[in-house]
Amino acid sequence: MIEVRNLTKRHGSRTAVDNLSIHVMPGLVTGFLGPNGAGKSTTMRAILGLVAPTSGEALIGGRPYRSLVRPLYSVGALLDADAAHAGRSAYHHLSVLALTNGIGRRRVTEVLDQVGLADAAHRRVGGFSLGMRQRLGLAAALLGDPGVLILDEPVNRLDPEGIRWIRGLLRTLADEGRTVFISSHVMGEMALTADRVIIIGRGRLITEATVGELVARFHRDVLVRTPREDELKRLLLAHGAVVRPEPGGGMAVSGGRRDATRTPPLDNAWISELAAAHGIPLYEITPRSASLEEAFMELTDSSTDHRTERRQA
Questions:
Q1: Do both 169 and 242 map to the same domain?
Q2: pLDDT tens, 240-265?
Q3: Which domain holds residue 231?
Q4: What is the pTM assigned to this prediction?
């Protein structure tokens, strides 16, 4: 388990991480989300002993990273895919890392094959594409077959095949009981990959939850299809609903209720009861929650330092 306890990191007058406490559990893919400048990279670097906290601590398996004798056996990390020396071959780069932790050369060959770089093993890194460098960074993270993986933007630079591959890899590693901690700005991919998400803003914890729990908090609307649309629409409007026509047919229903004994939002069960009470048949009634991206934007709106002007269509 990764534990961050009351972590604070200041750079002069600027606070990058502010009294942050989080737990990253084994057996799960945990996404680490936040706007630019939220403190994600600083937190990850503190976990890996690359940043000295102003106060608080970061532990892996109850110990600071710097106390690990052979850290690659415990923790694999990818923070910068461009860290490999451009003049070295992929095989040479990994061999040097392996040597520092007593890892055999057979394992170097194994991970190069695992990440799809076996045919490029003896090519110089300087001639690699951006995606190939990303794969090499992942190979370095996997070198010691660690129980903990900390990856900053792991799908960055990868093509669709590579993104699909790493999604399956991370899922497999978590299913094996490993702790997988990844940051990303690609919300669609995070929704497909992560079991849980931790969201921070301006160095502080905003929320942590499963992806399902998080999007369920942001009920969007209910799609309703009925042959007596006008009649049902009048009933819904009378109860304080907001009703919008759907481009493909049907109505999108949202909003509150005028009945003080009930609380918003209008849900599919209540709409079904209303329709049944008036003998109105329903062809479809589908509750629709926000996407992970929509939930993220809602939660971090007040924590975004740099925003683009939103234009009305």
A1: no
A2: 899 999 998 999 998 765 444 444 45
A3: 219-289
A4: 0.82
